[in-house]
Amino acid sequence: MAGHVGFDDGIWLNEPADWRIDSDHLHVVTDKATDFWRETHYGFTRDTGHFYSVKTPGAFTAQLRIRARYEQLYDQAGLMVRVSATQWIKAGIELSDGLPMVSSVLTSNQSDWSTAPYGDDASDFWLRATVKEGVLRLQVSADGMHWPLMRLCPFPVASSYSVGPMCCTPERAGLNVEFSDFTISGAMSKDLHDLS
């Protein structure tokens, strides 16, 4: 799959009612009460968020540009890497306590949640995920060139993964999201502190 670009080969988990692809841009309007979450704190499990995925090899780097305007609590858009319904990570911007937060949820049977204020333009940002040898490295970028580390965590080893755009609106419907610049390549081998 090295060199895969765009959205031609994707499949939906929870296809939204309103979406389209044009000129290698995926446009999505979220359905009502959509989310990915398992158990922690709230006690419920949700697997209803929109996820447009392609299959990857067992080691890869994926990049994606995300544009959206977050208006209500828990509005979110970003990238998901998924092994199964009980093993996945989602990352992106999520509106929480009135602010756009850089957010990630790692799930291994139960979900965790990590957030921090995002200091750049949350309406237009990039994500990069690298999976290799049981480790997942998440990076976020304001310009697609400078890639600070967002998260480093253990991740299940698998022969292939599902990866792609993700968006949810647990409290409403109607978040407009534009995804673009979607690429998947072999796992990059850059030093952890190489932010290029």
Automatic annotation (TrEMBL):
Leader peptide range in chain numbering: none
Name under which the protein is recorded: Regulation of enolase protein 1
Gene3D superfamilies per the UniProt record, alphabetical: 2.60.120.200
InterPro entries per record: ConA-like_dom_sf, DUF1349, UCP022704
